[in-house]
Design goal:
Blueprint lengths: L2 H11 L12 E4 L9 E5 L4 H9 L4 E4 L16 H12 L2 E4 L2 H5 L4 H8 L3 E6 L8 E11 H12 L5 E3 L3 E11 L4 H6 L4 E6 L2 H9 L3 E4 L2 H5 L2 H12 L4 E4 L9
Parallel strand pairs: 2-3, 2-11, 3-4, 8-9, 9-10
Antiparallel strand pairs: 1-4, 5-6, 6-8, 7-10
Length: 255
Amino acid sequence: MTVKELYSYLEARLPRSLSAEWDNDGLSCCPEPKRQVRRVLVALDLTEAVAERAAAEGFDVVLTHHPLLFRGVKALVTEHAVPRKLLTLARAGVAAMAFHTRLDAAEGGVNDVLAALLGLANVAPFGPAGEVPCGRVGELPEAMTAEELAALVKDKLHAPGVLLSGTGTVRRVAVLGGEGGDYVAAAAEAGAELFLSGRIGYHRMLDGPEEGLVLLEAGHYATEAPVCAHLADLVRAADAAIEVEIVHSYTPRLI
């Protein structure tokens, strides 16, 4: 299977029609479209460490959730991080492809994985009116306190810490990996008693409980990293002979 064939296979399952208009995912670096894919490195982010490892260790493709190219690159110079990573990949013939908001919205993607980790049942999509519904809402197997659910989330997501705003007993839970501040109202409208996201924002975290919704932040990386296993499975389904490795890509540390 070539690089272009692998990308076409993945895009058929994660169509661009599910992407937000502002998104810029897809095939961002493809120096050798006909290169045979034998090794794929999967990460949430294409950091410099990920790019350097892919180039040094003979990977053919780096597959991520977050795109390498969000803004226009005006010059391929080594003084700036994004063009430096592009040069590293291109020199080694390594392709970079990403599936971002379409992977949030897709069946089996970021938010279905997140809902499954919490054991939610009767899961349904939700989102702001007029947008592709990326979030998921469902019921816990049994009601628990907000504090008990926060502890469960921290454990399941291997999060260094979580931030809880509100209290009480909850069962109907909404989830959205990553940045979820714009989904708070939609979560309430979907009947959620608690909304879990990576980042919600200071003022929304204050206001949520006063409006009847418990809010829980678990970190952008922690709420999205579990989808890397799903991306790896998609590659293996495309060609079982491809060697796939998942790498941790988060560099900030909680001190």
